[in-house]
Write a structure and sequence with these properties.
Length: about 425
Amino acid sequence: MTETVAAPARTNDRRLRERAERVIPGGMYGHLSARRLPETYPQFYASSEGCRVVDVDGREFVDVMCSFGPMILGYRHEKVEAAAAAQRRLGDTQPGPGPCMVELAELLVERVDHADWAMLAKNGSDATRLCLATARAVTGRRAVLAAEGAYHGWSSWCNPYVDGPATPADAEVHRYTYNDLASVRAAVEGAGAENVAAIFVSPFRHDAGYDQEMVDPAFAAGLRRLCDDIGALLVTDEVRAGFRLHHGSSWEPLGVTPDLSAWSKAIANGYPIAAALGSSRCAAGAERIFATGSFWYQAVPMAAAIATIHALADEDAIARMVAAGERLREGIEKQAVEHSIEVRQSGPVQMPALSFVEDTAFERAAVFCGEAAAHGAILHPRHNWFLSAAHTDEDIDRVLEATEAGFRAVRAAFGHG
Ligand code: PMP
């Protein structure tokens, strides 16, 4: 008798994937990059509230990806939604911004130490590009330094894959190794110190596909000194980490102040907005650059951002994310030991990453996250996860039931070790 393999269920999710295939290049596996995700992972969502999401087949999950960062207070957070709704009743896309643009810029300047001004846009890539353009305008130089493997957006200046596989990124981008000051000095030498407009750096190393690395305070301080020595600007890319580590610029606790910083993701709890922030020495340069977008001045996301930034402080959001992250990290550590499976947990607890030893092809990670999804938790095999202020102990315990199933599946497929 031949064994029959059950065809994948004709779920709503699968039907949508098939329809997407016909009208979106590559369907969900093209630019949407879902190819590396386990099959059990939902790709279409029907609704979301707090830290719970429901997919198009009615399955509920605790979301530990927070939409890759934008959700920070919980989906449909009451105060943010009220502020957005109030603004929506008045207007959103209009011939110019609402008064909330000025209010938001004032609030960002108040919250972020190094900032004397803010320019608002939509996506993280806009914010990093604004910082680059500003740095070039301020210094009159072209070259940029960025860490090897760091992601600063989809623009071609920093991303070699924009125009097809591995086309060269901007020839004026010179790479260094995160936390290695000697490699930064070598990159400066390669570029010519007198040509360097900016050094880009993320608050900690959070490249997808690698264990995360906290910044060495001496590296951060060294970058600042080096920039001052050569007349370049220090740019921190806060797009992913911003407001999850600190209620201000992430390096404020280290006493290291950038000249420019790029923000997006979490600043409006999911509403589309980004900001480039700068010190007064960069204001004249920022004034001269050409940068605009049809939707950059929408009022609703600005109102949402104001409400989000106030709620982050009022609700002690960072402490809550840390508490949830610690509970998750401790729970996973315990499970890994019980299953005799060697894992590495890295990065800040509120933006955790998990990797398995001897898992260079991410096979164990895929089995783990696939099984966790089948048991109700959205995690990611290669990218860091995100906690939010909406994750309660009960939610984390629910996630831990899913990770327990994940470890069991890894052990069944790969054995111990
Ligand atoms: N910088 C960093 C550190 C990011 O994580 C991202 C997005 N993942 C970006 C820039 C680009 O942001 P966006 O996708 O909103 O353009």
